[in-house]
Amino acid sequence: MRVAIIGGAGTVGQAVALGLIRAETVTDIVLVDVHDDPGALCLRLRKNAKVSQRRLDARDQQALVAALAGTCLLVNCAGPFCDTVVPVARAAVALGADSLDVCDDFAATALLLESDLDAAAQAAGVSLITGMGADPGTNNLLALWYAKKLDTVQSVSLAWAVDCGDLAGAALAHAATMLAGEVPQFCDGRLHYLEGGAGEETVTFADPIGTVTVRYVGHPQPLTLPRRLPGLQNLTVKGVILPDWADRMLMAQKSNGLLRREPLALAASLLRERASAMPPGPGVSGLKVAVSGTRQGRAVTYAAEMVGAMGLGTGLPAAIAALLLLEGSVAAKGLLAPEDAIDPQIFVARLLACGAAIRQTRSETVTLTADGGSV
User: Fold this and answer.
1) How far apart are CA 7 and CA 92, in angstroms?
2) Is pLDDT at 98 greater than 60 in this prediction?
3) Residue 351: which pLDDT band, with cuts at 50, 70 and 90?
4) Which of the listed residues 10, 119, 155, 357 has the most CB atoms within 10 Å of its CB?
5) How far is CA 247 from CA 115, 163, 197, 213, in A?
6) Which sign, positive or negative, has the C-alpha torsion 94, 99, 101, 106?
7) At what angle are helices 106-114 and 81-95 packed, to 10 degrees?
8) What is the pLDDT confidence band of residue 372, given thresholds at 50, 70 and 90?
9) How far apart are CA 336 and CA 292, in angstroms?
């Protein structure tokens, strides 16, 4: 089976490719990018006979369709996602191929949800999974995994911390975009749009990240996850760019109006220039999920945490989902969020089998009665 990875020369695209090259079902991996320099690829990909490169623009739907005939799966790792998710998904439908993306931009997800792609994909009998990276992606499925252990789900808290050293190109611009303007959060049982960068909260990640301040960011989960969690009251997504100087710089840029769409490239450029002269961050990124609700009448919170390199943390979940699609393990057709398409128990088992470390905790609140008993 042939797989095309859009944005395949980038860090995340290469991580997806590395997760696929050993699979016997994958016979060809086409790395599609605006750059086709073999020197940009890691040695394992350059030397693997399954891997080839193709120079194409992810925004050009017709060119993708013409060049990728016979492809079974498109994996979109190319940002800015507002420019690429719709043409790549439409190309997949035209090819009769499944697709997935690692889109973490709520505005791009909204474009997909507001389009006719769900009906088009169902008519074509294909699955289009959006947001299948780390956050969204792994966090969505961990949240659903824990929700299935509860009788009722009241709140989901998603948080992440990303080292700016892990960011480049469109990802760096996204670091600024996600704080700009109002961003979706699910509060008091309904969708709200709150100011990006507000809602400060202190969160402790495993070393070497430690304790950081996270804030509301513009990720897609508030648009999709509540549909799968009846009775949910609150779902927040908060994040921070590390180290501290990068966080302070982004918040200063927001205060000065540099995070509006027009000067956004300037804000990203300033952050990139400063990064070359400032002390490095922790060298890793992290994500956390906490799901609270009730089980057998008791208040219970499940929590999980993962820390590692962002490229692998985003590329590995996408590779797992890609293999599940190729194996025929995703029955649902249409436009799908990760929680609509993938069994969380199977996903977590695959993630652990690949060597991922998930630190989990469970806490329970017992209400004491007047006679010394409990409920």
Assistant:
1) 15
2) yes
3) very high
4) 10
5) 34, 10, 10, 9
6) positive
7) 40
8) very low
9) 25
pLDDT of residue 267: 61
Rounded to 5°, the CA angle 278-280-286 comes to 135
Smallest CA-to-CA distance from 6 within 37, 32, 29, 42 is with 32
Neighbours of 170 (CB within 10 A): 21
Strand partners, 158: 237, 289
Angstrom distance (rounded) from CA 158 to CA 87: 29
Residue found by looking up tokens 């929700």 in the block: 147
Residues 6+ apart with CB under 8 A from 138: 287, 306, 313, 317, 347, 351
Domains of the chain: 2-133+311-353 (3.40.50.720), 138-308 (3.30.360.10)
Mean pLDDT of 359-365: 91
Coil vs helix vs strand at 130: coil
Residue with token string 């891997």: 51
Beta strands in the chain, from DSSP E residues, in sequence order: 2-6, 28-33, 51-55, 73-76, 98-101, 127-129, 152-163, 182-187, 190-195, 201-204, 211-216, 234-242, 285-295, 298-308, 334-336, 359-365
Strands 98-101 and 127-129: parallel
For tokens 């402790």, the residue is 204
How far is it, in rounded angstroms, from Cα 341 to Cα 76?
Answer: 17
Residue that is written with structure tokens 């943390």 in the block: 313
Distance separating alpha carbons of residues 343 and 2, to the nearest angstrom:
24
Q: Give the model's confidence band at 311: pLDDT under 50 very low, under 70 low, under 90 confident, else very high.
A: confident
What pLDDT does residue 167 have?
73
Residue 304 corresponds to which amino acid? A
What proportions of the chain, in percent to the nearest 5, are helix, strand and coil? 40, 30, 35
